[in-house]
Amino acid sequence: MIAPSILAADFSKLGELVREVTKAGADRIHVDVMDGHFVPNLSMGAVVVEGLRPVTTVPLEVHLMVEDPGRFLDGFVKAGADTLIVHLEVLPDPRPMVEHIKKALGKKVGLAFNPDMPVERIEPYLKDIDLALCMTVFPGFGGQAFIPESLERLRKLKALTAVHNPACEIEVDGGIGAKTIAGCAAAGANVFVAGSAVFGAKQGPAAATKDLIALAKQ
Ligand SMILES: O=C(CO)[C@@H](O)[C@H](O)COP(=O)(O)O
Ligand SMILES: [Fe+2]
Prior knowledge:
About 35% of the residues lie in helices and about 20% in strands. The longest helix has 15 residues, at about 150-165. It has helices spanning about 15-25, 45-50, 75-80, 95-105, 150-165, 180-185, 195-200, 205-215, and strands at about 1-5, 30-35, 60-65, 85, 110-115, 130-135, 170-175, 190-195. It is built from 8 helices and 8 strands; from the N terminus they run βαβαβαβαββαβαβαα. The chain binds 5-O-phosphono-D-xylulose and fe (ii) ion.
């Protein structure tokens, strides 16, 4: 599954671009939310999700790179988010929030972790989540280079999900493109976030989406 990240899109044409990648076969749209604290950058809030909701039929997944995700969950749900992804780094015990997102809010829940977090830290929560997001760059900015050590981490994550929750999706985010996507798929990933490789592609976002879908399948 391909999840174009709108962080790399030309915001003056956001609706049009999201329509275009949806038509090209994007499986979901990835919305990067940054608070300037958890990561050294600011990006977008729930109004963007609200604006995009009528534009696409595919799920909108919100990647919350924020220190205090609990403050924002309701707003994103009201705006139309389908999946809420929170970072393990800011949750000493993510279980109450995972439960809240699933039961009270009725949405899908993802747990993300940075490249310097031991993969085993997510193990106790795998059985309760829909998606594990293995960051393949340090979060905060689009357009960074894929960290090669991520492949070994993905293999570990795949082995852990096989034991605890084979239905749990394994998502990769950061530096995913034509050169890195097949390796990530072989290592166990099945959801691929791509920002610059889609919206910055020479061939245009629609063709790039189709190319990435084909490469991920090989
Ligand atoms: O969460 C993040 C960055 O923190 C990502 O979702 C980026 O937006 C991916 O951009 P590319 O590396 O694909 O350009
Ligand atoms: Fe992201």
